[in-house]
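One-letter codes give the sequence; the fold follows as tokens. An example follows:
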Amino acid sequence: MPMELFAFLLDFILHIDRHLESFVNNYGLWVYALLFLVIFVETGLVVMPFLPGDSLLFVVGAMCGVGLMNYPLVVGLLFAAAVLGNQSNYTIGHYLGPKVFQWEDSRFFNKKAFDQAHAFYERYGGITIVAARFMPFLRTFAPFVAGVSQMTRSKFTFYDITGGALWVGGVVSAGYFFGNVPFVKTHLDKIIWAMILVPGLLVLFGAWKARRKAAQGS
């Protein structure tokens, strides 16, 4: 059963254009509710980072380009889902934050490291919230960590709205203008793989580089 579920999710992510077009043809306007739910859950629940984000927005934009969906409605709706999802994720982290601050050093928790993370988010967390929008997995965890680190709600909301607008508007528009180019349609599965893997590799490289720099400085 787990393997069958994994196979279905992988097929859905890699062939999301076919699944989405079928859903539009069969259920019409309900597709907007489905899209809102997927983006809200992917950004709002820290346990659901595997849902498609960038690839979904790109394909939706391409479908808007051929008139299957309404471009202004999609952008507005998914922007709202992205912002509200992040706010929900932040709220969960913010609620857990006071409990985390009371924890003492243990095998599984380093309070000094957590305090450093808190200071980092207060100083640089804003750009992290914006950049994380374009990175699978990190997109789901960043608002939760911001909440745990007690970033102020007003500061988080500003960067949440900014990042949400850039992410949804940028990726949907890219799909709208380029998603139906013959070369892109032919190689869409490879493009989706790139949208999944490249940001993740960049995050891993950045983490490795920062760890190496810290090791050299110590």
User: Anything to note?
Assistant: Residues 71-102 form the longest helix (32 residues).
